[in-house]
Design a protein that fits this description.
The protein has 233 residues and is an alpha/beta fold. The protein is built from 8 helices and 9 strands. The radius of gyration is 18 Å and the shape is globular. This is CobW C-terminal domain-containing protein. Keywords: Chaperone, GTP-binding, Hydrolase, Nucleotide-binding, Zinc.
Length: 233
């Protein structure tokens, strides 16, 4: 099992100027990566935009990071307890709550694409897009094989690229899967950011398919699915 523990990250968005930076060629790529990496996002200056624009901002944020927690603020005034406590979903995992969680069903933002964003449910996407891939399948994985696969996926992503001349990359990954280690079956949580990941054993009250979410750019979801299935014992 991993000896690394990933803490959560938080981002803050200027609602009034979000569209300007989002559409800027010079800053949009950096902005999208920051959105992907955040576990919590404060959308600030909500008093300066109307509801329609606020909904558009949330839609764009969710298109890159379906699992992020969002809170609205004015003058960046947020409750201190909310700022310092781990995201609720992370607390659920660490508290070993029953397996009724954000990965039990595909996030709606993945299954219902907006007009301005691209989504996939285990299918191909354009190599230049940052896209969430939701993958589910039954079976019990070998934990050692799974950890080896996650390492290859994050450290040698070219093997999973859509195009040979454009190496892809995985920006975030989360998962909950059944694994066997030393003859013992357990549920394992996956969390990953860039080239760092952790696999942590958790208790689960319900069984179901293995579920993974990869937020990536230029990768072939079918290759990831095939690699995961090769870890089944």
């Amino acid at each position: 099992m991993s000896n690394i523990e990933l803490n959560y990250t938080m981002g803050i968005i200027d609602a009034k100027n979000f569209t300007k930076f989002y559409e800027s060629i010079d800053t949009s790529e950096a902005l999208k990566k920051q959105l992907v990496h955040a576990d919590k996002i404060l959308i600030n200056k909500v008093d300066l935009v109307d509801i329609e624009n606020l909904e558009k901002i949330e839609s764009e944020v969710k298109s890159f990071n379906p699992l992020v927690e969002i809170r609205h603020t004015e003058y960046a005034n947020a409750d201190l307890e909310y700022l310092i406590e781990p995201p609720s979903k992370l607390q659920e995992f660490k508290a070993s709550s029953p397996l009724v969680d954000i990965l039990s069903e595909p996030p709606a933002e993945i299954l219902v694409p907006s007009a301005s964003s691209a989504f996939t449910h285990g299918h191909r996407s354009h190599s230049s897009e940052i896209t969430p891939h939701y993958i589910t399948f039954p079976g019990i994985l070998s934990l050692s094989k799974a950890e080896e696969f996650f390492g290859k996926l994050l450290w040698e992503p070219s093997a999973f690229s859509l195009e040979e001349e454009k190496p892809g990359c995985v920006l975030r990954c989360k998962g909950l899967f059944a694994a066997r280690e030393d003859g013992k079956e357990e549920m394992v949580m996956l969390q990953g950011v860039d080239d760092t990941f952790e696999c942590r054993k958790v208790q689960a009250g319900e069984e179901g398919d293995n579920r993974f979410l990869f937020v990536a750019k230029g990768v072939d979801a079918d290759k990831i699915r095939e690699g995961l299935k090769e870890c089944i014992e």
